[in-house]
Amino acid sequence: MASIPIKRLQLKAQLPRVLRTIGKKHSYGLYQQPARLKHRSNAILAACLPTQTYPFNRPFMSSSAQRQPRSIGMEWYDLSPARQIQWMLESGDNKWGWAIYRCTYKPELQGPWEKFKNLVECRIQKAIVDSDAPDIAKKLDLAWIEDSQLEGALLSELKRRFREWVRTETQHFNFDISAHSSELGSRYSHFIQVDEESLVSCLRECGVDLHGGHVNIVRGWADGLAPEEATDEFGDALDAEDWMKIPASEIMPSTYMEFDNDEMWYVNYTQPPNVCNARW
Question: Source organism's superkingdom (predicted)?
Answer without folding.
Answer: Eukaryota
